[in-house]
Every structure is written in structure tokens, then in C-alpha cells.
Write a structure and sequence with these properties.
- By secondary structure, the chain is α+β, with helices and mostly antiparallel strands.
- It has three domains: 48 residues, no CATH class; 95 residues, SH3 type barrels, CATH 2.30.30; 80 residues, Alpha-Beta Plaits, CATH 3.30.70.
- It is built from eight helices and nine strands.
- Strand 7 and strand 8 form a beta hairpin.
Length: 250
């Protein structure tokens, strides 16, 4: 089981831990009886550790991501302040334009959720506990200034804020029902098969959280509410029509 666990660490964590995991594997294998070593290898070959990156179609961790993960890990262990540029989701092409901003934070711990790395810590700009997604971080700098983690903070007890107050309903064609089940949105809370369609209910923080997911279904999905999201979908559809019209020969 130690070897199986080290396989997961080697493919999920940053390069420093990957090297440690590989070294541990070699030492364990070196002291195992030959027959047992072969059996364990057969077991490793027959088990696919489907990590959350694959399950949720998240990209494999890149060299740049590993470097950032390593810096954040050091900041957590050494209790040192981090400075970085953070891209919020709202600065994406599918949302209202908001420039990236520079943040300073005191990282308290790391979270690996649905194939994505986050760190939880005190944001000096907001002066509150926040959660930051590592893949949205750029120009990360480990500062010399230190901080003291609150004595009452327990990473094992941390629960992300569930402020999913925006309700969205989407009507899907009957033929798309099985596809929606195979590729549900993180924010999906209910799926109801009706006589003429499939009604999907989602709860999110803001409409931008699910805009791209809805757009990806094309003609198979129609937003019922809220009206503001319907208007946003219409604007994107009009843009696509114009963009493809420009490609047509005159």
C-alpha cells in the first residue's frame, strides 16, 4: 500500500515530493523479497489510480504549476508571506473584463479538490480568510516577511464557503440527458426528466461560474432563468454568428 500511495504522490505533488516518493519506492523495493516484489508490481500494473485531475478533466500539472505549488508549500511550512498576481474567473474572455491584481497573503494550508490545487490563507488586501486557486496565480514571490498562523486554525476542519446563492435552471433536450449525467457541472443540484425535456437546476456564486458550461452544450441547452444569463448567452451567440459570417467568402 505504501508503494501505491507513493505512486499517487509522485504524479500529484510538486517535483520535490515526487523525487522523495520515487526514492522511497526504491528503498522499499530493495528490501522486499523477490516473490513479494513481483506480486506488488503486478498489483501496481493492474490498478489505475484515477486521480481527480483525470476524473474532472483537469489538465495534468505543468512544470510551472509544480514550481508554484513548491513555493506555496514552502510558504505554508515556513510561515512566510506570498506575493502574486491573481487572475479571477471574471477576467476570462467569457466574463466582464476585470484586470488581474497583485495580492499578498499568508498561506495556512493546501487543498487538493476535484483535481485542482488551492491554498487557504489570510488575504492582506481583503483582511479575511480566502481560498486561492494555484493555476490562476502568476509572478509568485516568496517574501522574507513572516506571519504567525492563528492557533485556533485547523486545516483539517476547514470547509470552503458554500455561498452558492444564484439559482439557474436550464432546459436540455431529451437526447442530451445521458450526456449531462456523464459530464455534470460542479454546480448541478438537481436533474429532472420531464415529458418533453430535461430540467437541470444549478446553484452557483455568480452566473460566470456556469456560463462556459452552458455554452458548451450549444443547441441542446436553453437557459430558463435568470433572464440576465439568457441575455448573456444571446450576446455570445450573436458574437459567434458574426465571427463565422466574417469567414464566409464575399
Amino acid at each position: 500500500m505504501l508503494l501505491l500511495g507513493s505512486d499517487y504522490v509522485a504524479t500529484t505533488f510538486d517535483s520535490t515530493y515526487a523525487e522523495v516518493a520515487h526514492t522511497a519506492q526504491e528503498k522499499i523495493e530493495a528490501i522486499m523479497p523477490e516473490k513479494q516484489r513481483i506480486q506488488v508490481q503486478q498489483l501496481r500494473d493492474s490498478i489505475h489510480l484515477l486521480n481527480l485531475d483525470e476524473a474532472f478533466h483537469a489538465p495534468n500539472i505543468t512544470e510551472s504549476d509544480q514550481e508554484i505549488l513548491g513555493l506555496v508549500r514552502r510558504a505554508v511550512l515556513e510561515q512566510r508571506e506570498l506575493s502574486f498576481t491573481y487572475r479571477s474567473r471574471r477576467s476570462s474572455p467569457y466574463a466582464s473584463e476585470e484586470p488581474s491584481c497583485t495580492r499578498n497573503a499568508h498561506p495556512y494550508g493546501l487543498v487538493h479538490q476535484r483535481g485542482i490545487w488551492y491554498f487557504v490563507g489570510h488575504c492582506t488586501m481583503r483582511n479575511e480568510l480566502r481560498q486561492f486557486r494555484l493555476e490562476r496565480m502568476e509572478s509568485v514571490t516568496l517574501l522574507t516577511s513572516t506571519f504567525a498562523r492563528p492557533s485556533e486554525f485547523r486545516m483539517s476542519e476547514y470547509e470552503p464557503e458554500q455561498n452558492f446563492l444564484v439559482e439557474v435552471t436550464v432546459s436540455f433536450t431529451k437526447e442530451a440527458a445521458s450526456w449531462v449525467r456523464e459530464n455534470p457541472s460542479f454546480y448541478l443540484t438537481n436533474l429532472e426528466e420531464r415529458e418533453d425535456d430535461v430540467l437541470v437546476t444549478l446553484h452557483c456564486r455568480n452566473e460566470q461560474d456556469i456560463l462556459q458550461w452552458v455554452l458548451s452544450w450549444g443547441r441542446y441547452a436553453r437557459v430558463l432563468q435568470p433572464q440576465s444569463l439568457r441575455e448573456s448567452i444571446k450576446d455570445h451567440a450573436a458574437f459567434l454568428v458574426d465571427a463565422y459570417r466574417e469567414l464566409e467568402p464575399s
